[in-house]
Amino acid sequence: MVEAGVPEGQYWFVGASGADQESQDQAERFISQGIWENGFEDRYLDTVKSMKVGDRIALKSTYVRRSGLPFEAHGHAVPVLAVRAVGVITANPGDGRKIGVDWTRAGRPREWYLYTGRHTIWKVTPGHWMREALLRFTFLGEPQDTDRFRNDPAWAKRFGDVDPTPEQRFEWTAFYEAMATALLGFRRRRGELLAHLRAMQERHEELGFLMDRDWRDNPVPLKDICPFTVMGTFNRGASPAKRTEIAADWAAFLGITAPAPTGFDGIPLLNNQNSWFFPPAGTRQKDDIDSLWDVFEAALAAADSSEDHERFRLAAAYDRARDIYRVGTKLTMGLFWVRPWNYLPLDGRSRQYLKTELMLDQDFFTADGTAYVTLLDTLASKFEDPQFAVHSFPELSWTAYLERYGHGAHADSGSAGEAPEPEDDPTPMSPQASYTVRDIVADGCFVDESDLNGYLARWRSKKNLILQGPPGTGKTWLARRLAYALIGTRDNKSALRATQFHPNSSYEDFVRGWRPGSDGKLTLVDGPFLEMVERANANPDVPHVMLIEEINRGNPVQVFGELLTLIEAGKRSPRESLQLAYPRSGTESVHVPSNLYIIGTMNLADRSLAIMDLAFRRRFAFVSLEPSVNDAWQAWMSARHGVDPKELELVRFRFEALNDRIADDPALGSEFRLGHSFVTPPAEERVASFADWFRGVVDTEIVPTLEEYWFDDAAKAESASAALLEGLA
Predict the structure, then answer these.
(1) Axis crossing angle, helix 631-641 with helix 645-664, rounded to the nearest 10
(2) Tens of pLDDT along 76-98?
(3) Distances (CA, A) of 152 to 129, 146, 534
(4) What is the pTM of this model?
């Protein structure tokens, strides 16, 4: 078990404001009357109805802070959740509007940092270390381990101890946020902005594009301007030095003390032929520019709060501004500039990355404000997963930029077309850290290094490899790391693509098929395998990997189709190319390049799976993974988690005895043994008591598995489980 846990059950964090930004704070009324009310007439009714008498509840407020923090913020805003009162739900009449609460007021609001939720009503359940820590802080009075949170991948680039490169630290974000904050003060003083712009146009000829046209089509000074267009003056095609100069000019006028950025890698760039966020005077509607100021103001407010009324306000303002002529998804670039840690840019490169790398199948062009805010929530949740490809919106944009260019600018491909890459002062791609078999072992692999080298050698020769074994033997974990070692780095995210087969997987999903487009017409769309073929052909010197989890859950022969022939090691050349079932032309043919490798995983204990076709088997090398509760496991557990060797020896003996019992059972066999992941805490998890942690695993993971194995002999499952824990302290 990790740190001392909290009791199982439902825990709620709720806000104290109403359904709109004008609502007054209701905290004092809630506490004095012993209630909590849902401030929305038509939202969260079912959620409130699900609250049970006896559930613990906390009254919160959320905001951001840049100073007075217990750690260095590097100029970034830090999300804060203040716990104002805690209580127990005493009544729920079931109307979805009001509940009774026995509140205990906090003498002084207690501040919690970084992991603060994104909604007015936030249900938090135990089971993950972040949630456990928040619950202990709130309801048990324990302090927050801010060092652990700020060094988690979700926040490490901003607040962590490891000092990444300047590009990966995203130092530019502090200036962009400061400029946006300063611009908000000029919403009612736009004349001053325009006067300074005219002065800047005399100093910077690059700003000559910001001129309106009179009825004779003569250039005339602008009479109004929006904040995104101001930000766009240094986010369009120009040399980095000139962009820095223009940004510094604005900073001097606005009183910004943060230095202007000197590098702009990964920041979406406007098309020089479409650099305004509002139409020219002749086609401009009366409220266009005010609508852009509305969404700008709403975006800054929503970034500083997790109250839902701010999110709804943003969604509504987004819809109005997005519909302005020639704005569209360009609006999301502006939102990213003003609060890069809170908003996603939907420029061309980011859209491509979302679809091909992060597997988000969504029509981003037609997404309204509600869909955009929902997408933000989806990605923010994924950023908290250490295994997710990226952990923030700046990192997502930067990664998409690297995969497209390697240097230069990140161009928008919206309605006006994609801007050309600037030719001035190209910045080389940051070097990628190497990854080898030795790194696999250091990450916590209990397979001998010489065996791992053998797996890689066989994979390079055969081109296609399958890792098979009982549940819990780390097949997917090892498959990814073998891929990193084959590629030579874990930083080249475009060289690895993962997918998972299931009984309904088809050739059309995996290779190519017809899909309905946004216009209602059928479009021929390449699946993940052909996308990897294209990437590998474009970069022949770089190994590329297609990882297929649960490869035997589908029908691999049917899913691969004619490509089953082309994946053979001896047929990886253009001479062996074939026409696909759905060709784009009568002359199109495809071959699988020699630098595209396939690795699959296969669970031997799933009896629902069909026997794999022999023709398919001949194309793959197979590696069988065993439960590795061995000397390497003991050394890892002792070094990483500080577990007593005697305790490890006892668990190892008990676990091996259980696996022997499973293997000897004629109704089961060796493929049903349990893998070492059942007795190995994740590397990032802190284990205070291994015995307590192991008891929790036995109760929640091993016992249910054994009950399924021996469903007709409950006593046998119970005795096997009890034997595991016998002798533990």
Answers:
(1) 140
(2) 889 899 999 999 999 999 999 99
(3) 11, 10, 34
(4) 0.55
